[in-house]
């Protein structure tokens, strides 16, 4: 079993704060586009930034990461301030999509690594990585009453799954931690970037796809 202390490295600390900042910004921007108050914007930044990591820590029976680290809440507040004082048009287009993709895959790597370090078996550890990367955005969309990206046939969860799987596989094979984390993040981000650039998506379910017509 990996020791919990193994994840307390500068590389994963950076991935952690990067994921928090990107997801917090996406939450704050959603509140800004809805013309909400600054308090609401800060709340959305917090729940989006820490949502996935909180669920992960509760599931793996670890101390909730942001409760004991004042920097996490501070970063969420700073991103809310940035969103408050900048026009939303600055963040329109695909720039925020790419940033979100980087946060998604970085968080997936962090979640999978942390789960392994707490003795979680490989498959559940991969799922913890996916949860860490995706749940914050799901909570944001549910609270805002918006359709979640998970309900679209985009390569989103797939990118998180790729990063988490490569991370777990590399760590179990004994590859150097920074190499494993870097490759896993880059691979997932590349897949997500390709999906954004070329509208790649998984095939969606269609009623009657096997020739069975409705009502038959």
UniProtKB/TrEMBL annotation:
Residues 14-86, 98-168 form the Glycine transporter domain. The keyword Chaperone does not apply. Pfam families: Gly_transporter. It is found in: Cell membrane. Its main location: membrane. It is a multi-pass membrane protein. InterPro entries: Gly_transporter (IPR005115). Keywords: Cell membrane, Membrane, Transmembrane, Transmembrane helix. The chain crosses the membrane at residues 6-31, 38-59, 65-86, 123-143, 155-175. GO terms for cellular component: plasma membrane. Belongs to the UPF0126 family. PANTHER family: INNER MEMBRANE PROTEIN, UPF0126 INNER MEMBRANE PROTEIN YADS-RELATED. This is Trimeric intracellular cation channel family protein. It comes from Pontixanthobacter gangjinensis.
